[in-house]
Amino acid sequence: MKMKKILSLLLAASLALGLLAGCGGDTTTSQDPGNGTSQGTEASGSPASDVTIQVAALLSAYEETYPGMWEEVCEAFTAETGIQVDLTVDRNIEDVIGPSMQGGDYPDVVHLATGRDAGLTEQFINDQLLTDITDVLSMTIPGEDTTVGDKIIEGFTETSATNPYGDGKTYLAPMFYSPCGLFYNAGLFEEKGWEVPTTWDEMWALGDVALEEGIYLFTYPTAGYFDAFLYALMNVVGGPEFFNAATTYEEGIWDTPESDALFEILDRLADYTNPITPAQANDQDFTMNQQLVLDNEALFMPNGTWIVGEMAQAPRADGFEWGMTALPALEEGGMGYSYTFLEQAWIPSGAEHVDEAKQFIAFLYSDTAADIFAKGNAVQPIRGMTDQLEGDNQLFYSIYDNGAGAAMGSFAAYSAIPGIDNTTVFFEPINSLVSGTLTIEQWKANIISATDQMRANLLS
Amino acid sequence: MKRSKRRTGFLLVCVAPAVILFFIFMIVPTINVFRMSLFERGAYSPTETFVGFQNFETLFQDTRFIQAMQNTILLIVVVTIITFALALVFAGILTREKLRGQNFFRVVFYIPNILSVVVISGIFSAIYQPENGLLNSIIGLFTDMTDPILWKGETLVMLSLIIAMIWQAVGYYMVMYMASMAAVPLDLYESASLDGAGRVRQFFQITIPLIWTNIRTTLTFFIISTINMAFLFVKAMTSGGPNGASEVALSYMYGQKDAGLYGYSMAIGVVIFLFSFILSALVNRATKREALQY
């Protein structure tokens, strides 16, 4: 009997062990053979080199538009410099390179933006595991005689998106950028004779008019899309000064008139949001929220230029035409803002071939590489690039020429705090606000107490 | 003597691969989880700092973790009770009653079990859709649905998860109970009915006591698998949203790892480990009965 007892205890223990087996140690995740391509690129007639660098890039909508985009760039790089490239492109690149990085094997160059769910780039920033690439800006681009810094549009290497520690040093190269704004059905506006609002007062007026026709003013794909929205809104209510103060968690910043204006807009916006939005605001159903705009059930949604490709196959209302506008100004004569979403490329500090990796990053700004990327609609912050755009993209990227201010940068890096991160503090609560389970005052109080901790943990 | 030594050697060689693999892939990682929970480090950071029990102290003040734990317990309790009740009743009906299309029902009930959780989540996401979903469309036949029911909204999301998880699990346990119910001798039922016991009474006084050992074992098994399954369902159906309303312990642990808190997420792992271990032991103790023989 006693034996039996021990045996059953052991059995229960081993069952419980099974629970944890997946959590500890270095687990390896299998790679989806459908998405992942991993091969070396060889080029004949180029100077021989025995160095092979490892490049890991995210398979995003750009690569889908023009499959083989990254491979072509790597081949061109090998042809130019003789350095071999071992390329890995995957939709879930974090899962592919993560386990080996935990084992100490790092790629030399990683192209992966901040703001992803897995937050891999943020972890490298927060743990200060990036190589300083400030000197790349003064490097001559392989095959050209201009330097990288001369080609990059001014301002792109001066924000927290590339200089996360605010010390003037660049750690992340600004790669593809995309203006984010409010997307709408331009055809519907034309049909109804509505004007695209330029101030928030006009926005609310339009909201009332549209609601009479059964159309809600607003929806959003997931709460994660509020990053670009909130960054732009911070600029709208208080200009870059407020944005900088808020994203560096300045004390008392959430008790200013600018902050009141921001919360008032969020509060009203929640009332005008299509109430089914939060129930679909997850990674599985977010396209249903985007569909609300295509079906004329909501007027505006915050999004990026990739939406056109993402929803290309989706059914839509008659006469649908994509339109995009910056966030309206606070009042007449004020400035509207559009956030610039930026994807970054960086070198882990554990990389083996740092010099070659820097050459690779420099090469990414060459005309050859830029032309290849442009085929996938990926636009780099290179002078003169926007002049070559066509179609919808031309309209989207001209948003800044039409008077909107450009918002750039993101929340300053802080060492990780248990239970508190940007998403849960600043973005996710919009779901509860729309559902009516959270008041704007509660949200504000949460932000204030969370930013106190973020400020105390700032890295710089 | 020599022969028995050789025999022992042979047995050792036979068992060694399994033991070694079990040690490397189960014991070592688990010990590692316990060790890591006392450190603070990022998943990719080469340095680690010893912080003692600080991760655990923070953990018990972390409201998001407490919410995730509450959700986990809710799932364990509700899903277990309803799944077991349904599985037992269905198994009882399918073994004891003469029904038309009995085999058809067996297959139908078992099908969810061969589907992957991702597929089930996809099916239920479609069913729960606010505007064109199956559920709202059916309810819409009877009432006005201008304000659709938000099955995956903040208030109902846990209920929606519970329904999907029960649907997935019932068939498997039903088949298990059918197997042990089939082994109960028919003469017991015969004499019981001669004594005037009805179907329901037979079910509670003969069937359940006689398959009690089976129920006990599956109960322990089920509690632990619910903790695991909840993670899969949450990942594939709700991503823990809206605003953390459907976060469960394991998905919260996973999220904290992504936030760069490897040590902290391991501390969560330790708490879940101890929790499931203690819970299984308690259930085991509470369900202890004198074993009945037939």
Structure description:
The complex is a heterodimer of chains A (460) and B (294). Chain A has helices spanning 2-21, 61-65, 69-81, 93-102, 120-126, 148-151, 186-192, 200-212, 226-247, 257-272, 277-280, 286-294, 307-310, 354-363, 367-375, 391-397, 422-427, 429-435, 440-456, and strands spanning 37-41, 52-58, 84-90, 109-111, 172-185, 216-218, 298-304, 322-325, 337-346, 405-407. By secondary structure, chain A is of the alpha/beta class. Chain A has 2 domains: 40-178 and 341-392, D-Maltodextrin-Binding Protein, domain 2; 179-339 and 412-456, Periplasmic binding protein-like II (D-Maltodextrin-Binding Protein, domain 2), CATH 3.40.190.10. In chain A, helix 3 (69-81) runs antiparallel to helix 15 (367-375) and helix 9 (226-247) runs antiparallel to helix 10 (257-272). Chain A is globular and about 70 Å long. The model of chain A is unreliable at 18-46 (pLDDT under 50). Chain B has a single domain, classed as MetI-like (MetI-like fold), CATH 1.10.3720.10. Chain B is mostly helical. In chain B, helix 3 runs parallel beside helix 7 (157-182), helix 5 packs across helix 10 and helix 11 runs antiparallel to helix 12 (262-286). The longest helix of chain B has 35 residues, at 2-36. Helices cover 73% and strands 1% of the residues of chain B. Chain B has 12 helices and 2 strands. In chain B, a hairpin with an 8-residue loop joins strand 1 and strand 2. A two-stranded antiparallel ribbon of chain B has the order 1-2. The model of chain B has no long low-confidence stretch (mean pLDDT 90). The chains are: A alpha/beta (460), B mainly alpha (294). Chains A and B meet through helix 1, helix 4, helix 5, helix 11 and helix 18 of A and helix 1, helix 2, helix 3, helix 5 and helix 10 of B.
